[in-house]
Amino acid sequence: MTRHGLDDRAWSELEREVVDLFTALLRVDTTNPPGNETACALVLRDYFARNGIETTLVGELPERQNLTARLDGTRPGPTLSLMGHLDVVPADAAEWSVPPFGGVVRDGYVWGCGSTDMKNQVAAEAVALARLKRSGAELAGTIKFAATADEEDGEFCGVRWLCREHPETLRCDYLLNEGMGGLWLPVGGRKVFLLAAGEKAFAQFRIRTRGRGGHASVPEKEHSAVIDLARAVTALGLTDPPAIVSAMTADFIDVVVADAELAARLRDPRTARAAGAELRRLDPEVASLVEPLLGATFTPTILAAGKAVNVIPTHAEAFIDCRILPEMTLEVTREIVRAVLDPLGIDWEFEWVDVTEPNASPAPTPLSESIARVLRAEEPGAVLAPMCSGSFTDSRWVREAFPDCVAYGFAPFVAESFHAMRGGRDHEPDERILVEDVTYQALFFERLARDLLA
Ligand SMILES: [Zn+2]
Predict the structure, then answer these.
(1) Any long-range contacts for 344-349 (C-beta under 8 Å, 24+ apart)?
(2) Over the stretch 60-102, which tens digit does the pLDDT of each residue have?
């Protein structure tokens, strides 16, 4: 019997090595804030030391260090960086079936806060590096490894800081990091793997309305900041911004939407929005991937107005979480807001709250081709679907610092599908990953390095 190309015994040994390291990382509470990543980095340092790999701790704060390592090949070639953050989001133990920092293995899963976001990938990348070192693999090029701090909150002493203060630790031709990449869905009998080639940017803003304040016994229907704000929030929250279909998104639609006629309507910006609503009814999971790629999203999140129930407030404000595509600009986004709000006939003020520059790497590239080759050795029908992730990752800082670097989010799940995981488990109670999936991830990173740096 073989599993993913390994005989039973070799697979069990790999599984034990991955699960031991992975659960040790999960048992260190790296909730950010405050982070406490150094304690977790020390677990990795010990593991690498046992495997003859030197590591360096660098960071701005003693308790928030980043761990870096490298493995040089025997001849020149490209540099591949394997990166992952060690911090996790806060978990409420009362909402979990197991202790979130217990490193529990049960029912075929490894459970814990960070088990998919993203201590799994850190453990898998570390084991891949150790196996390459132990086997004396003769690589052309260099592998760099970085387990980093401060991704989930703040972003001041992690990858952004490393890119500025110690760029050599991350400088590379190819980078693999988190994202939605590696999740797969079945389409027409084939496994389609998401490849996060880019990410949308924040274009978060605040809308403020003003009105005549006064005693609540006399309503101010025409000049009420609250009523005007409610209208603005409703209009923005329900609007379908103009559709944009980039070449990458058009290809993505073709791969993940099996119905060719529906796919054609999704690819046409004039019919994309209506087709997106149809897709939402047919397959909400696939729609959750496709619809955010069709343009800006406007999600009202914070509302504020008034302090006393009997006083009409003079102003009201709403925060809108807006995410834009790499093809869009802030000016275009603001024009969309204007087009939605001006017809309401209300007075409104606009202010950017948090904006970032979107960026993306091209596909295909030698890295995506190598990923596809390694996957197909396992799954002959595997298809890679490059896309733009809706959430922010540290890949953005690396693309910004090293414009020629191709950075993807990718760590393949082979057993559990995107639908079975209901779109993924990041930041959720009972975050967990199949032992088989995290074990395969280690094998994948090892095989990828051997293929890319052959
Ligand atoms: Zn993450």
Answers:
(1) 344/228, 344/231, 344/232, 344/235, 346/209, 346/228, 346/231, 346/232, 347/209, 347/210, 347/228, 348/207, 348/208, 348/209, 348/228, 348/232, 349/207, 349/208, 349/209, 349/210
(2) 999 999 999 999 999 999 999 999 999 999 999 999 999 999 9
Alpha-carbon distance values, 346 to 206, 314, 322, 409 (Å) = 15, 14, 21, 43
- Report how far ligand 1's centroid is from the alpha carbon of 210 (Å): 39
- The model's pTM is 0.92
Distance 117 CA to ligand 1 centre (A): 4
Q: How far is the CA of 149 from the centre of ligand 1 (A)?
A: 11
Compute CA 418 distance to the chain's CA centroid, rounded to the nearest angstrom. Answer: 14
Tokens encoding 380: 């002959």
Where, residue-wise, is CATH 3.30.70.360 in the chain?
201-240+296-357
**13 C-beta neighbours (distance < 10 Å), count:** 11
196 Cα–ligand 1 center, Å: 13
Q: How many angstroms separate the alpha carbon of residue 84 from the centre of ligand 1?
A: 8
Taking the centre of ligand 1 as the mean of its atom positions, its distance from the CA of residue 152, in whole angstroms, is 7
The one-character DSSP state at 131 is H
Please report the pLDDT score of residue 1 as a whole number: 81
**Below-70 pLDDT ranges, the chain:** none
Q: 118 CA to middle of ligand 1, Å? A: 5
**Amino acid 104: pLDDT:** 98
- Cα–Cα distances (Å) from 291 to 70, 253, 267, 298, 387, in that order, read 39, 10, 11, 12, 12
CATH for 2-179+365-452, options being 1.10.287.1080, 3.30.413.10, 3.30.990.10, 3.40.630.10:
3.40.630.10
Report residues near ion ligand 1: CB below 5 Å. Answer: 117-118, 178
Q: How many angstroms separate the alpha carbon of residue 450 from the centre of ligand 1?
A: 26
Are 172 and 80 a contacting pair, CB within 8 Å?
yes
The 10 Å Cβ neighbour count of residue 385 is 22
Q: Report the separation in Å between the CA atom of 136 and the middle of ligand 1, taken as the mean of its atom positions.
A: 31
- Please list the residue range(s) of the chain that carry CATH number 3.40.630.10: 2-179+365-452
CATH number of 201-240+296-357: 3.30.70.360
For every residue of 209-247, DSSP letters joined together read EE---EETTS--SSS-HHHHHHHHHHHHHH--PPP---H
